[in-house]
Amino acid sequence: MLALFPMLAERPQARAWLLSGGQQQMLALARALMLAPRILLIDEPSVGLAPILISRTIDKIKELKDRYQLTVLMAEQNFPQALRIADRGYVIVHGQIAFEGRSADELNNNELIRKFYLGL
């Protein structure tokens, strides 16, 4: 795991609560991957992170998804970042599925999504 997350290797003795938000996200991913899962459930990986760390975190999730052939189920409000790794997506409004996109292109090209989530 330290090879996958070199930032953690720099502070091997640090307590989890003393790590930065990005390092805590990496630690959570590393702990989950140690069990060799087939599916990875991730809740709001971008919360509380600086924009550059959001991008790096999403990149790492995509890398792990591809490398380990993982199914990733991710709840994320940062729609543009979520689209970067999505094979399929659902927009949930008040507990109901309001839209289902069966591909990143379908999600990206939906008029309501473009207006409300992408600001286009």
In short:
With 120 residues, this protein is of the alpha+beta class.
Account of the protein in words:
The chain has 120 residues and is an alpha+beta fold. It folds into 2 domains: 21-77, no CATH class; 86-120, no CATH class. It is 42% helix and 18% strand. The protein is built from 6 helices and 4 strands. It has helices at residues 6-9, 21-33, 51-68, 79-83, 104-108, 111-116; strands at residues 39-43, 71-75, 89-93, 96-101. The strands form 2 sheets. The protein has a two-stranded parallel sheet. Helix 2 packs parallel to helix 3. It is elongated, with a radius of gyration of 16 Å. The N and C termini lie far apart (39 Å).
| Share of β-strand residues | 15-25%
Query: So what's the overall shape?
Result: elongated
Helix coverage percent: 40-55%
Instruction: Give the integer mean of the pLDDT values.
Output: 86
Quantity of strands, as a count:
4
The tally of domains stands at: 2
Question: SSE order, as H and E?
Answer: HHEHEHEEHH
Low-confidence stretches: none
Radius of gyration: 16 Å
Note the main sheet.
2 strands, parallel
Number of helices: 6
Structural class: alpha+beta
Widest beta sheet: strand line-up: 1-2
First-to-last CA distance: 39 Å
Topology of this structure?
Elements lengths: L5 H4 L11 H13 L5 E5 L7 H18 L2 E5 L3 H5 L5 E5 L2 E6 L2 H5 L2 H6 L4
Parallel strand pairs: 1-2
Antiparallel strand pairs: 3-4
Helix pairs in contact: 2-3
